[in-house]
Amino acid sequence: MFAIAIGAAAVAPGAASSAPALPAGCEQLAGDAGVRCVYTEGSHTLALPAGIRTVEATAIGAAGGNIVDDRHPHLGGRGAQVTANLNLPSSARTLHVIVGSPGHDTSGWNNQIPGQGGSNGGGDGGRSNTFDANPAGAGGGGASDIRTTAGDLSSRLFVAAGGGGATPSRCGDGGDAGAPGSANEPDLTPSAGQPGTPTTGGAGGANDPDHSEPGWDGSPGRLGHGGAGATAYAGGAGGGGGLYGGGGGSVQCAGGGGSSLVPTSGVLDLAERGTAPRITITYRTRTPQSCTSSLCFGS
After folding, report:
1. Cβ atoms within 10 A of the Cβ of 101, count?
2. What phi and psi, each to the nearest 5 degrees, are found at residue 68?
3. Average per-residue pLDDT for the chain
4. Per the record, which residues fall in region Disordered (predicted)?
5. For residues 64 and 100, what is the distance between their CA atoms, to the nearest angstrom?
6. So where are the chain's domains?
7. DSSP line for 103-157
């Protein structure tokens, strides 16, 4: 018996169809729900099948570093969670998926070693330059993004920002993505880092005018990167990464969260505390060819 092909190459009765191999980190979902790819911390690439112009994506940015100190524990800011349907440029056959890491914790008082910023844009915490109990700041969390060109921040399609780092005292908790570091006490002049915006990095925390020498203010955020914390007397915390990074905290003050890039169809929220940064991408391929005993129907 000969097979009859309609809109597809003939397949002999009983012959098994060979599906293309899935990219690393991806799985075929049941029915026609498509292919789901899940990525954790680090840099990854996703080569899409021909004809894929739209993907569904969820990205979670990393949290800022915590202060793990029994006397003055404080929490880093939460990363953003962004969900959207992405319409891809016609030339985008490969997506570069970058998942940031959390800012590094510090142990608080009697610790002069600052927390490093998380990968993909987290700002470094500031080092204490004194020899007493003054603490160093924690690092800001890195962002998670999808881009069309490796290493090119301008090609990002989608960004979930990271949270700002914490410090042990004064304005202690780091700013959530899109928010400043926690407010300082009213009678204290040093201030927390400010959040990144859609067009510019967050301002660094400012100290009082009597301390205008270098090291007393936090560094401002910039495109893709959070600012570093202050390094004079006692360290400030780093800002979170993002579309634009959050500002670093002034002396003993927390970092601001970064800003996110949300497509028109997207939804912006904050990740639940303790959620690991990641990116999930789902795409739907064309309907696979199906065969009866004598007929094959292509997509």
Report:
1. 24
2. -100, 80
3. 84
4. 101-148, 161-224
5. 11
6. 1-34+284-299, 35-283
7. PPPB--TT--PPPPPPTTTPPPPPPP-SSSSPPPPPPPPPPEEEESSTT-GGGEE
